[in-house]
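Report of the visiting student (M.T.), summer placement. My assignment was to run the structure pipeline on a short list of targets and document each run. The first record concerns Protein-tyrosine phosphatase.
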Amino acid sequence: MKKILLVCTGNTCRSSMAKGIFEDLIKKEGRNDEIAIDSAGISVYYSEGANPNAILAAREMGIDISSHISKQVDEYHIANSDLVLTMTTGQKEILKARYSGYAFKIFTLKEFEGDSKTWDIADPFGGSLDIYKRTAKEIKDAITNLINNKKI
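After the run finished, the structure tokens were exported:
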């Protein structure tokens, strides 16, 4: 089984939505027994649920992330993942510096997808529900491209 780790800053917005979206898409493809998805954050000081707007944006896509609990990424997560996908170049560089022995498997989501002019997905934290919906759509589009292009 291929293990994919999705990483953002606090693991309450982007990576929590990305995990739910990714799991939904691979389930619809009938591949949920081939791919395991997890998520974590680079700056999680205490565990908390997904951001309320992230929950609502995902719910509008038919995805329930209401039981998500944030967690701090650590070497165990990186070592036990086949692929680590961050939401920004900055996050990618932080992980590569912290876990240099695993740099070969750390990319931004949009970099790995390969069909984008920018590799960063902006943080919606503090934004309106509409901003979260746009972010969720951007994430879904990138993951859909990964699946359709057989990169996953």
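Strands lie at 2-8, 35-41, 83-86, 106-108. The mean pLDDT is 96. I thank the supervising group for their guidance throughout the placement.
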